[in-house]
Amino acid sequence: LAKTTQPISMDSYEGQEVNITCSHNNIATNDYITWYQQFPSQGPRFIIQGYKTKVTNEVASLFIPADRKSSTLSLPRVSLSDTAVYYCLVGDLNSGYSTLTFGKGTMLLVSP
Amino acid sequence: DTEVTQTPKHLVMGMTNKKSLKCEQHMGHRAMYWYKQKAKKPPELMFVYSYEKLSINESVPSRFSPECPNSSLLNLHLHALQPEDSALYLCASTPGGGTDTQYFGPGTRLTVL
User: Fold this and answer.
1) Where do the DSSP E strands lie in A1-112?
2) 3-state DSSP call for residue B50?
3) What is the pLDDT of residues B54-73, one digit of tens each?
4) Contact B104 A45 (CB under 8 A)
5) How far apart are CA B101 and CA A91, in angstroms?
6) Which residues of A44-75 are buried (b: 16+ CB within 10 A; e: fewer)?
7) Cβ-nearest to A100 among B4, B45, B107
8) What is the pLDDT of residue A1?
9) How do residues A46-101 score in pLDDT, each as one tens digit?
10) Size of interface A-B (CB pairs under 8 A)
């Protein structure tokens, strides 16, 4: 079961790029890396998912090095509304639902 | 429809009450999940239903009783809860498994007096 480690909190300003790194040293071959965003008193929302190299969508990019022991979520030009908790999940549901373990998450605070 | 709905939004109950939380999705997803989330903590998996059968029960106390009447509906029956059970209860669903990402509902904020 791949365990993840993230910074507890990060601070940024509007318009800056934010990079949040997640460490997952014992990631398994079939595991995917998925990032979720959660606002207070709401359910987590899917941001991006990847297996290796780089994935980009309309809201974020995900960078995964060749050894896959870490990953970095990149949020371009953050705004105040990006203030939230960001969770990194590593797992593969085909390997069992016990892979659905959220780490402690990173609280991102964006200031004006 | 790409939405998971949960009712009620808020629930206050006494320790002797019996209540139920309801979760619904009409995306044709085959797996549904209950999570519990305490303040400033990550969500913790409680139950997983896959193809309407209970797949995972993460050592949850029997005062929580899940039910999956059909592939679109998931209930969580509550009885004799304790104040420490107060939390945000989240429901999620996935199409099946593998690399599927989870769609979460907005949650039910439960307060046990």
Assistant:
1) 9-13, 18-23, 32-38, 45-50, 53-56, 61-64, 70-75, 84-91, 106-111
2) strand
3) 887 778 999 999 999 998 99
4) yes
5) 11
6) bbebbbbeeeebeeeebbbbbeeebebbbbbb
7) B45
8) 53
9) 999 999 999 999 999 999 999 999 999 999 999 999 999 999 998 876 666 656 77
10) 58
